[in-house]
Amino acid sequence: MDITKRNPMPNQEPLVRNKNFKEVSLGYDAETAIAEAKRCLNCKNKPCISGCPVNISIPEFIEYVAAGDFEKAYEVINRTSALPAVCGRVCPQERQCESKCVRGIKGEAVSIGRLERFVADYHNANTEITNVNIEKKGKRVAIIGSGPSSLTCAGDLAKMGYDVTVFEALHIAGGVLVYGIPEFRLPKAIVAREVEGLKASGVEFKTNVVVGKSISIDDIFTKYDAVFIGSGAGLPRFMGIEGENLKGVYSANEFLTRINLMKAYKEDSRTPVYHGKRVAVVGGGNVAMDAARSAIRLGAEKVYIVYRRSFDEIPARAEEVEHAQEETIEFKTLTNPIRILGDDDKNVCGIECVKMELGEPDESGRRRPFTVEGSEHVIDVDCVIMAIGTSPNPLIKATTAGLEVNSRGGIVTDDMGRTSREGVFAGGDAVTGAATVIKAMGAGKNAAVAIDEYLQNK
Question: What pTM did the predictor assign?
Fold first, then answer.
């Protein structure tokens, strides 16, 4: 075997998987995992750890995998990561831990994410969830939202001995892991098991509770000693162009929530979603890829990714872009919508776009796109999905006195998640806007440390 090359991940065939919602990547078997782990150089300085937002001891867990001790490898990961089966599937390892891998200097980096997924799946398949008895400190913490930052914060605080209650607005816990990421990338049974594990450690979940409507943070403080806000970034953005109110125009949030949370892809779904035959998805991030790949699975004959910058600047994970291309999704880059066209019944019948060219880098570091004069053209579609980003949920900041927010609607915190209001902490997308799962988890871990310090000194 050529040790400069990583072991390939087995996947469903593209023209099979683009017609079902089963998981695309099938995972390593034990033999392949061991072979991949043996590619690790076990570097003295361990640079890969510096690329991990939750500082997993990567060479240590990989060494156990190479020795075939998968349960010990899980124990190492579980010391710092609350959601290894999730992170192994959805984290952008190529920009984080794997980007620091020394093996990648003269070859391909070790497949750290795939090994993490294997270890977590092995553990989940071979162990039962059992209740954990932890000595209690006698203090209570409320967690708002149940996404990755909240689940991480809740798990860490529960291990410290705090009574933790998670308040979730929807009827199922898991936040963006449940409503945002499709089944073919992250099976919901995996998220459900992680939630069950937190329940076994003493975390209580209260669903269908909209903080800011059915209960306020002031109400929560009558029963709890501290509050962590991890309510995510669920407010979709639109372009503000003509035609966005036509029938057949979705935000990616709504489109994916109907599919993922409400199972709209099933024929007997009580909350069906409009099945466009020719679909344009506007945007280039992971959410855009998820929406486009979901649309093709719903039976669309043609799906386009419409992105205003070049192909090389698409921000989505390289693996997701590659999978989308394999599944027959067409990329229309350097293309920007200026108007959505409708027929007499106010249904979408096309999207008018202009070609773009790239100039000098803007404040984001990416080259700024400019319109090419006279390049107007129409793409024939009957459905448009806007996947151009989201903003933090405005409900909590609007109903909570003393909570400072920035111009983008994010809650202002220090590096440890402390807000401008005493006893209130925040992290994840509610602070940063839409970001990665692992960064949200890192924020949840930091906040748990700060909450512990606050309650110990209170």
Answer: 0.93
